[in-house]
């Protein structure tokens, strides 16, 4: 039977503490940035690179030649990183513009298709109504008193309803008329008044900038 020999506590060595992480420098930040495929991340990277380049430019005022040479090297690396970031950002923005144009073109095509399908549906409904009128006319001519017709797979039934038809609205007594009053802001007049320097309580003039992809 194997005997387990206890290990003295003094012989157990504690693991060495991990070295403290060094504080990131401006050059380290510029060199460690990773370009991602996200337009948002590329924009964040551009801001971080701008800050890093500014910090490096401030460090050029040091008197030490060795330090100045090192900062110059780091600044050159940061500028190269910024150039690459600008190229990646431009490419991503260009690709995004293509997607926007593609989606808008697809939306326009689908609107055209929707209009075409709406027209086709209207025509089909009109043909169905015309056929129904012809069918009812033939059947009621044969059986004028019938209100229901049964067939092998379908049934045609009718019900009575009443509706008021106005032949001449002007001939009606005012007691039979309902008056509706509506109002809406005159935005054109309000805009001109505010431009002229007037204060219009309850209204303000907002300036907007619109963008268009060419």
Could you describe the 3D structure shown?
- This protein is mainly alpha-helical and 214 residues long.
- It has a domain at 24-142.
- Helix content is 54%, strand content 3%.
- The chain is built from four helices and two strands; from the N terminus they run H-H-H-E-E-H.
- The chain has helices spanning 26-32, 39-59, 65-142, 187-195, and strands spanning 148-150, 155-157.
- The protein has a two-stranded antiparallel sheet.
- Strand 1 and strand 2 form a beta hairpin.
- The termini are far apart.
- The model is unreliable at 1-35 (pLDDT under 50).
Taking the alpha carbons of the first and last residues, their distance comes to 86 Å
Give the strand order, joined by hyphens, for the main sheet. 1-2
Count of alpha and pi helical runs: 4
Tell me the number of strands.
2
Briefly note the structural class of the backbone: mainly alpha
Percent range for helical residues? 40-55%
Low-confidence stretches: 1-35
The overall average pLDDT, rounded, is 80
| Strand and helix order | HHHEEH
Largest sheet: 2 strands, antiparallel
Net shape: elongated
Topology:
Layout: H1 26-32, H2 39-59, H3 65-142, E1 148-150, E2 155-157, H4 187-195
Antiparallel strand pairs: 1-2
Helix pairs in contact: 1-2, 1-3, 2-3
